[in-house]
Amino acid sequence: MISAKTRICGLIGDPVEHSVSPVMHNAAFNSMGLDYVYLPFRVEKGQLAKAIDGVRALNIGGLNVTIPHKVAITPFLDELETLAERIGAVNTIVNDNGHLKGYNTDASGFVKALLERGIEPRGKKIVILGAGGASRAISLTLAERDADLVILNRQLEIDWAVELASSISRFLGKEVKALELNEQNLSAVLKDADILVNATSVGMSPNSDETPVPAKLLKAGLVVFDIVYNPIKTRLLTEAEEAGAETIDGLDMLVWQGALAFEMWTGVKAPVGIMKAEAIKVLKENEN
Ligand code: ATR
């Protein structure tokens, strides 16, 4: 029941219709008996400043931020946690009496998903595919945790992998290798890798027949983490499983980034199992 005391949280992005966050968070609030509600707000690019004014004026308690605002929103906030500042992107905002602080729970959600499987990234050789927003969050947080990273990206006009590697070196004083994403480089770096992370959009629906890594390069002993969650089981994960590798799907990261945001807004431990079950339901519905 929505009451006069209900605290409002929500999502700003464009589009927002296919987001799993409203269902995931509302189910979590209900199951914990919290007087909170989570709403989707479609905000067009040019309306972001006004939307943030609205958040302050209406005293909205917390927000998630998605495409296309994750980077553009940073100058409108009062404070950024250090990691979000280094990543240059925010996916969660906490409104503390008008003081808006931005966080990046994509990064910590990724690490949570690893730790949940008993995988500690420290000292591990990790190959990361892609150098976009998601890769930036994952690479910076793994570098902070002293993982040994190689970033591979297809080369376009600007070499984002080299740019990302140099910002990691600037912020953290750590050397990270950046290479072109091709079969030869993949074959070389996967020989002694512990973990492979697909942080590109390759394999995402409707292109679910694509994979960023030829199956013959996958092997037992490797952990393969695909951040794509649509479909939940990507071609990369299917082939990794066939090769005897351990697999982690993007659903875990999706749920953990939501769970961490939930905990920041409510101060209550997130019902992760319920959130995951609801996320699966929405993803299956979206498929049909
Ligand atoms: P996100 O916020 O999900 O990270 P993004 O910032 O657009 O989205 O990044 C997408 C990543 O997937 C990028 O690294 C992109 O490579 P480019 O920087 O070269 O564009 C990568 N990517 C997308 N399609 C790809 C493809 N067909 N092959 C290889 N990499 C691809």
Question: Which properties best describe this structure?
Answer:
288 residues; six-stranded parallel beta sheet; 10 helices; binds 2'-monophosphoadenosine-5'-diphosphate
What does this protein structure show overall?
- The chain is an alpha/beta fold and 288 residues long.
- It has a six-stranded mixed sheet. Strands 9-8-7-10-11-12 form a six-stranded parallel sheet, sandwiched between helices.
- The longest helix is centred in the C-terminal third of the chain and has 17 residues.
- The model has no long low-confidence stretch (mean pLDDT 95).
- The site of 2'-monophosphoadenosine-5'-diphosphate has 14 residues, from helix 5.
The low-confidence runs, each spanning 5 or more residues with pLDDT under 50, are none
Biggest beta-sheet profile: 6 strands, mixed
Portion of residues within helices: 25-40%
Task: Give the rounded overall mean pLDDT.
Answer: 95
Order of helices and strands: EHEHEEHEEHEHEHEHEEHEHH
The unique ligands bound to this protein are: 2'-monophosphoadenosine-5'-diphosphate
Topology:
Layout (H helix, E strand, L loop, with lengths): L6 E7 L7 H11 L4 E7 L5 H11 L3 E4 L13 E2 L1 H6 L4 E5 L2 E5 L1 H12 L8 E5 L3 H12 L3 E6 L6 H13 L4 E4 L2 H8 L4 E4 L24 E4 L8 H8 L3 E3 L1 H17 L5 H16 L1
Parallel strand pairs: 1-2, 1-3, 4-6, 7-8, 7-10, 8-9, 10-11, 11-12
Antiparallel strand pairs: 3-5, 5-6
This protein binds 2'-monophosphoadenosine-5'-diphosphate.
In short:
This protein is an alpha/beta fold. Helices cover 40% and strands 19% of the residues. It has helices at residues 21-31, 48-58, 82-87, 105-116, 133-144, 160-172, 183-190, 235-242, 250-266, 272-287; strands at 7-13, 36-42, 62-65, 79-80, 92-96, 99-103, 125-129, 148-153, 177-180, 195-198, 223-226, 246-248.
